[in-house]
Prior knowledge:
Layout: H1 32-38, H2 49-59, E1 69-76, E2 82-83, E3 86-87, H3 92-96, E4 102-105, H4 111-119, E5 125-130, E6 137-150, E7 174-189, H5 190-203, H6 211-214, E8 220-224, H7 225-233
Parallel strand pairs: 1-5
Antiparallel strand pairs: 1-8, 2-3, 4-7, 5-6, 6-7
Amino acid sequence: MPWPSRKRDKGAVADKKEPEAKIAKTEETQKKEEEKSTKPPAGSSKSGWKNWKKAKESDAGGEESKQTYCHWLLKSEPESRLEKGVDMKFSIEDLKAQPNQTTFWEGVRNYQARNFLRAMKLGQQAFFYHSNCKEPGIVGIVKIVKEAYPDHTQFDQKDPHYDSTSRKENPKWSMVDVQFVRMTKRFIPLSEIKAHHLAHKADGGPLKNMMLFTRQRLSIQPLTQEEFDFVLSLEEEKPH
């Protein structure tokens, strides 16, 4: 493999800034036109989603969007950390440096996260999230360019993610290929997303059930269309 294995999720990984966790080890396009059509206007208030929602409902004839997952959030560590002698570091800059700005997303060893990988569809977009670092948050967007296939690292005894219980005829673990799409217009920190999440929990906004806070230890997380659109709208706002 052209670069060291670096993502992981063993069911117990979390960000440094999550309130319920100790320091832990973590682990579009569909088209520019689609991005523009689904992207909500930026608002300055923490509950500005209400005006955005009203506009979205008007565009859709007043119908609520179904709670289906069509976007994702992928966590990776931008700072060096050795695991069995292998550096887990893999930032978005490392992705940009890969041939064709594409990599396989390997090393996931949590069953729920693996199932999310297997649910990913070609062309779907995901946020690239820097985790287990001084200031966690969203730094860019990637897209799925190859759907789930067996993760070869599970069979490599020299790899930190080797799994002696997995068999080639029935592999336990999967990976996908992702490709860099673009950087977000600004860094969107976890603290800012959390402030919106807390506000939305109180008044029913789109981030009220965001898995980044309800299942924060997972390195692979699904996003509803509303969650993705709202978070993406934050890149247009000035940092608070």
